[in-house]
Amino acid sequence: MGNISREDWCEWDMISRPYSNLQHCLEKLAEIFKQGFPNPWAEQIIFQSHQMYFANCSLERRPLFFDPPEEVLLALIIAPICLIPFLVTLVVWRSKDSEVQT
């Protein structure tokens, strides 16, 4: 994290590699000391790094997802409900039609 400027600490594209390196290092150390991963020691180091580097990261930088407008939501719910009886009728009609032909 020392190579990354403070402004970029909250940008996942910038910190993903050092963060992955930290995890890889902790996994290797756990393997050397014959401990499982995650373990309390590794969790403490990860927690401390989060406090040190990511305490000031907020959700403002990430796009937030909101519920769709009520009209869109109702259309997405009602459309399949209305299609089901039509499709069932179509299947029954086609199956009766194929029985008549045989």
UniProtKB/TrEMBL annotation:
Cell compartments where the protein resides: Cell membrane
Coarse class of the protein's main subcellular location: membrane
Gene3D superfamilies according to UniProt: Receptor activity modifying family (1.10.150.510)
Highest taxon of the lineage: Eukaryota
GO molecular function: coreceptor activity
UniProt keyword annotations, A-Z: Cell membrane, Disulfide bond, Membrane, Receptor, Signal, Transmembrane, Transmembrane helix, Transport
Membrane topology of the entry: Single-pass type I membrane protein
GO biological process: angiogenesis; calcium ion transport; cellular response to hormone stimulus; G protein-coupled receptor signaling pathway; intracellular protein transport; protein localization to plasma membrane; receptor internalization; regulation of G protein-coupled receptor signaling pathway
TM helices/strands, residue ranges: 72-93
Family per record: Belongs to the RAMP family.
Protein name, as recorded: Receptor activity modifying protein 2
Organism, scientific name: Sarcophilus harrisii (Tasmanian devil)
